[in-house]
Every structure is written in structure tokens, then in C-alpha cells.
Automatic annotation (TrEMBL):
GO MF annotation list: pentosyltransferase activity
Entry GO CC: Golgi membrane
Pfam families: Glyco_transf_61
Source domain of life: Eukaryota
Protein name, as recorded: Glycosyltransferase 61 catalytic domain-containing protein
UniProt subcellular location: Golgi apparatus membrane
Major localization class: Golgi
Domain (Glycosyltransferase 61 catalytic) ranges: 39-115
UniProt-listed InterPro entries: Glyco_transf_61_cat, Glycosyltransferase_61
Membrane topology of this protein: Single-pass type II membrane protein
Keywords, comma-separated and alphabetical: Glycoprotein, Glycosyltransferase, Transferase
Length: 193
């Protein structure tokens, strides 16, 4: 998620990821007014996953966020979901929460100074940081990492504790079967944490 100006042509090329975000804003707001009307409560978007790395207690997480003062919108973007629709929702929101996945690419649609919380599965800290952590900081977002604990992963029921700690990305990245195993875990967020 970088902009390489050496691969671009023309005088109006984006030089940074923030410039690229501005291009998206211009494209998706064309003919429409931006959704920056004041809201009585901050809006939080909870990104749903329906495969692996899903948050299995999503309803509880949503209720907890509502109790602390957010209007919560749960989205499950599909291939046929219009990109403009997702852009407008995120551009008008204050926060995005989701488990590490390709769907978090939508963080590009968040306005600067919005909050992005990435829920990071066990042993996935390195790809989470490379894919979305550094990107969100370059976009000017408030970035929060929620590294799950062993008891929040369904892998805790399947693997010996020494296979889950310490978080050594070398053990994951060096072995494709390990990588697939860690990318296939589900998460139950500990709401007390």
C-alpha cells in the first residue's frame, strides 16, 4: 500500500497515499455532497468477515460499542457491493474496527483523524503492521492495534500453548502450513479486556 511515483505518468499524479485518498474522494463524491453532517453520536463501522478470522461474538461487540456511545453499522462487503456505497459509509464514519483481512483495504476510505482499530489474530502482527498499520498512519488515522490473547483465539483449543507464544513471526512465515493455520483462526474478543 504505497504510491510509487516512478511508475506514474502525467502532471497530476498522486505523490503520496494521502494524495491517492484525495483522488478517491474526488471520484466517489462526484455529483454528491460529502457525508460530513454532524451526528448526535459517533459512528463506528464494524467490518464483518464470513470465512476465517471472523469475530464470533460480533453481536456482543456491537452492543458494547453502542453502550459506550457509538452508532454501530455492521458491513459485510461483497464483490457486488458498490464501492461508492462503502466509500460514503466510511468517509462519513468516525471509526472502523475489523479483524486483519483483505477487507481492511477499505481503510483507504476513512477521513484523516478517524480511528482505525485492527484486531490482530495470534502470530499475525507482522502482516497486520505491513498491510494496514503503516498505511493507516500515513493516512493520518488514529491507529489502534488490538492483539488478541491466546484465550481469544479458537487455536487455543487446538494447539499446545508453546505453538502460540511467544509471537515469533519467523515461525509462521517460514512454513506455509503454519501460515495457513494461523490465518484460519476465529476470534472471540474478551470484552472485559
Amino acid at each position: 500500500m504505497i504510491v510509487d511515483v516512478t511508475l506514474q505518468r502525467g502532471p497530476r499524479r498522486p505523490k503520496t497515499i494521502s494524495d491517492f485518498r484525495a483522488v478517491l474522494s474526488t471520484a466517489f463524491n462526484q455529483g454528491h455532497s460529502p457525508r460530513h453532517q454532524p451526528k448526535s453520536r459517533a459512528q463506528l463501522v464494524l467490518l464483518r468477515r464470513s470465512g476465517t478470522r471472523k469475530i464470533v461474538n460480533e453481536d456482543e461487540v456491537r452492543r458494547e460499542a453502542e453502550e459506550v456511545g457509538f452508532d454501530v453499522v455492521v458491513i459485510d462487503p461483497k464483490r457486488e457491493t458498490p464501492t461508492r456505497e462503502i466509500f460514503k459509509l466510511l468517509d462519513g464514519s468516525h471509526a472502523l474496527v475489523g479483524a486483519h483481512s483483505a477487507g481492511l483495504t477499505h481503510v483507504l476510505f476513512m477521513r484523516s483523524a478517524s480511528v482505525f482499530m485492527q484486531v490482530v489474530p495470534l502470530r499475525c502482527a507482522w502482516p497486520a503492521d505491513i498491510c494496514y498499520g503503516k498505511l493507516s498512519i500515513r493516512l493520518g488515522l488514529e491507529y489502534i492495534v488490538y492483539d488478541i490473547q491466546v484465550h481469544e483465539s479458537n487455536l487455543g483449543e487446538k494447539l499446545a500453548r508453546e505453538c502460540l507464544e511467544p509471537h515469533d513471526p519467523g515461525l509462521v512465515m517460514g512454513n506455509l502450513s503454519n501460515w495457513n493455520m494461523y490465518m484460519n483462526q476465529d476470534i472471540k474478543i474478551d470484552l472485559d479486556r
